């Protein structure tokens, strides 16, 4: 094992020096490193340096930690802490940076992106390659290559000319000449004297390149202002017609800063308005009730079978428009409600030959729950779903239109963004609604690599959708987080506002890459905000989320209106429900009447078609009269009584059954009337008997056609019985809600972390334990020697007598090879029983699976 006082020579040695708690933090923050579990710490270090893993780690850094990594990418390798501090704070110094930098550096070490002591800081090579400048990928810091890198292909004579033009003594070789020029550019006093003699036009060129991009174009015969810079090495050629500002020169002009603006603290979330908490909760509760009503209305409309499933999956554009019209909402809002019901497991494809969307059995169970619990189920499904309705109507990677309920709507970052946005709202005072711009600015600071530069700023779009959807769902009211919305996030949230510390402005200069240096460049002012960081609780586990949802439901329940069992009947064949109705009353009234308007009170209208619908569902006229008398606060109006009796008298007088289809009626005069009606021509009816007509249409079409002509036919079975139809008859088989698509491997729990660390430590012990030198091992490149069966058996038996530990190579039944340190206890029957230091337990191994054995070196 390495001496703890000796600086680590590699990332593997740095990881080896960590304790288990530190390794657990690393594996929890970068779960891809244990998928699968590495065999030892060397393999863990190798995996931590792979491009895919480093990119994932960089994407999860906040702006200041990322700026720290970028500064290390342009610093020396290794770099001292003071050099890093100078790059971050500049020559003038910045107290806020000095305070925040140790924490940022600790984060990079924790993430295994930086290793080594403060005097030898090393950025992982892959991270340096991703963040360091190159002509193809300019550095985020806007710095170009060093003098040494830029002059790598330059002739020694040309380098000597640059040294002489800069006023330096000539040297005997190009290496010392480049070192002399670098020393000049890094000396603040001497550089100030050199630039003091620069023409004003040349200084303007430097000012346009100083903050990057550092590359510019020149002609074959550069202007005098460019020639002055080229002659002294302040601009160096990189390709025909292209020059670059060396890193050392840019850092002098920047006063030592790697970034134009450092942001050590996050921007605060500003309150746009403040409302009384009671008003917020009441508004949110009203929205929650509307959300429940909307989902019920949607699925009730699809009770008899919803829209057809497209061949590729999802709703057609036409069906989405029809759904939006039925719900009286815009199409994007309709897509949200459809996706929410799907995420909650309330609707799904029915799986039949002519596949359609329909309610699931879970919908019926959901309807029986109290209103607050129904809302909590919707809110929890929304908070954890990765399916994102906001992308409906967009295009996928193959330029195919994304449809509601279709594939391709999962966005793995959605749950994290929703949780983070609501957490930021919870940090405001109660009743305060945030400024959307400040929320987006905060999110961009927290994940800058997932900001405008990547995925067309998907994270910001998700945040905007979250604010809108939370209001529609009733998690927020008037833009502020409600009490039940706060409970939905968990009781561990702390309230408070971010405290602003200071603000200033620095000039910003922009230069288009490759633009002619003779053109003018604009300048503007960019604000810098410093704020105290807020506590950021992690998302809840499924068990914690269920508990939080139950708490939210308890807080919401008193705010929702109590269901009523009475309604107001009016003489114009309408009924007014002054509030939500109890389930049996609402279900029956929904069949007997049509909804005419919605709002605080719902208006229903009775029509011949709606009454016939109730009769078709098996209700008799007497049942309808009794139902209305029982639930009406006012006497049943006479017009409504007449309407029910009139429709009931004619209902079922005509009977329609299946031959291909037929009409049966005891009144042959009525059949004559049907045959004489021109509207019946499309049904192609002919008389088979005085009381029977045959039709060349299916029974459903025949029923609709006769009803359109003003008759009230009833369907009958093959036995002649009237068929009773129910609106809620069609349900899908039991379905599970769509599972969220995780953003990479899930965060391991404590049990998995402990087991993984134990396995990694054990494997590392086996691979690093010193062994006695052996000629066969030396010939094998230092690998485990391959011993014969007789040698293996003899060594094992000797170790049993002496009690010594051995190092073995072992191949299990699946063919996986591993190295282990064991202390043999017994050898018999072709097996060795030993205490396995790698697994920390007694195990038995077949001798024929041991590939080789070696004694451990004496400590």
UniProtKB/TrEMBL annotation:
<feature type="region of interest" description="Disordered">
    <location>
        <begin position="498"/>
        <end position="544"/>
    </location>
</feature>
<feature type="region of interest" description="Disordered">
    <location>
        <begin position="132"/>
        <end position="151"/>
    </location>
</feature>
<dbReference type="InterPro" id="IPR032830">
    <property type="entry name" value="XPB/Ssl2_N"/>
</dbReference>
<dbReference type="Pfam" id="PF13625">
    <property type="entry name" value="Helicase_C_3"/>
</dbReference>
<dbReference type="InterPro" id="IPR026881">
    <property type="entry name" value="WYL_dom"/>
</dbReference>
<feature type="domain" description="WYL">
    <location>
        <begin position="791"/>
        <end position="853"/>
    </location>
</feature>
<feature type="region of interest" description="Disordered">
    <location>
        <begin position="764"/>
        <end position="788"/>
    </location>
</feature>
<dbReference type="GO" id="GO:0003677">
    <property type="term" value="F:DNA binding"/>
</dbReference>
<feature type="domain" description="Helicase XPB/Ssl2 N-terminal">
    <location>
        <begin position="567"/>
        <end position="689"/>
    </location>
</feature>
<dbReference type="Pfam" id="PF13280">
    <property type="entry name" value="WYL"/>
</dbReference>
<protein>
    <submittedName>
        <fullName>DNA-binding protein</fullName>
    </submittedName>
</protein>
<feature type="compositionally biased region" description="Low complexity">
    <location>
        <begin position="535"/>
        <end position="544"/>
    </location>
</feature>
<keyword id="KW-0238">DNA-binding</keyword>
